[in-house]
Give the backbone structure.
Amino acid sequence: MVQSLHFNLTQREIRHKIIVERTQTDIREAETLVHEMLPIKIANSLRDGHEVQPEVFESVSIYFSDIYGFNDYTVEYSPLEVVDLLNMVYG
């Protein structure tokens, strides 16, 4: 019985370690993606729970576009691969 408890505890510890590692990986990937989309100063402020104050610019450009099949692409590929595609198209 003691061996069974030890075995179950060890399995639980292994599962916990795997979950923690996957969570840390997901957090790093999410932060990388956010840093690709936003200026680092703003991304870090949002991550730390701070309110980001709007900025005023004398002039800006806004570009709207549509990529055929983009929704299907986003389902099949990781967020970082989608960002890579967008960087290739618009970078």
